[in-house]
Amino acid sequence: MLLATLKRRVDALIIVCHLGKVMSERKSKAVVLLSGGLDSAVCLYLARRVNEGVVGLSFNYYGRRSVEREAAVKLAAAAGVELIQVEVDFLKEASDVVGAPEQLGGVTQVYIPARNIIFYGIAAHFAERVGANRIYGGHIKSDALRFQDASEAFFEKFNTLLSNHLVSKGVQVTTPLIRFEKYEVVRLGGDLGVPFEFTWSCYGKGPKPCGECEACKERKQAFIRAGLSDPLYG
Ligand SMILES: [Zn+2]
């Protein structure tokens, strides 16, 4: 019990230090990847707090539902930032690839092959174009367990690539939530005034969140643990 309490305190301290590092970065211009999900919304509001100029970036991949697109549009409008939407409809989730090779069979169905190499490559393109030196991604701790290209190790290597091989040497990817649990992201979003009602998490096909899928359940638990009510689910 004592060890568990101590571990929680150490974890909390790591998170505070990590966030402190983000908050102490000098004001600059940033590109924020905005999917319309809860984590990316919190990341957008955090980036807006610590940067002078913020541009949102959304990727319209194959089969991306209109509710997700609308969520990103609403969030960008609410935050008062420009949203660049990039059409990449050749990019498919593994479950949408007909005759996908066997090695993709074991990954989660929402995995897009080579997703973050492509997304952050495109983000680097826009960062250079708009003169931003930060690219924000709202990945959280549990993402790295599911996707190898959402880990701290991946972004460390990607940043080395950006440092050494772009004309503007200063562009770097920042992932301020990468050590956060989902409930901590919700709590931070509450503090930042994120309009959670505009976000979308559900994997279902309906016009309203189903409340039953893995994403809905995870979201529900996070709000309960954060001690907040979720305006999207009422
Ligand atoms: Zn759902």
Strand and helix map with partners:
Blueprint: H1 2-23, E1 29-33, H2 38-50, E2 53-61, H3 66-79, E3 82-88, H4 115-130, E4 134-136, H5 143-146, H6 152-165, E5 172-174, H7 182-192, H8 214-226
Parallel strand pairs: 1-2, 1-4, 2-3, 4-5
Bound molecules: zinc ion (ZN).
The site of zinc ion has 9 residues, from helix 8.
Summarize the structure.
This protein has 234 residues and is α/β, with parallel strands linked by helices. The chain has 8 helices and 5 strands.
Q: Please provide the count of β strands.
A: 5
Total domain count: 1
Bound molecules: zinc ion
How would the global form be characterised?
globular
Radius of gyration: 18 Å
What is the CATH topology? Rossmann fold
| Neighbour order of strands in the largest sheet | 3-2-1-4-5
Task: Write up this protein.
Pathway: Purine metabolism; 7-cyano-7-deazaguanine biosynthesis. Keywords: ATP-binding, Ligase, Metal-binding, Nucleotide-binding, Zinc. Catalyzes the ATP-dependent conversion of 7-carboxy-7-deazaguanine (CDG) to 7-cyano-7-deazaguanine (preQ(0)). Pfam families: QueC. It is an enzyme of class 6 (ligase). By secondary structure, the chain is an alpha/beta fold. The protein has a single domain (27-194), classed as Rossmann fold. 46% of the residues lie in helices and 12% in strands. Strands 3-2-1-4-5 form a five-stranded parallel sheet, sandwiched between helices. Strand 2, helix 3 and strand 3 (82-88) form a beta-alpha-beta unit. The mean pLDDT is 89. Bound molecules: zinc ion.
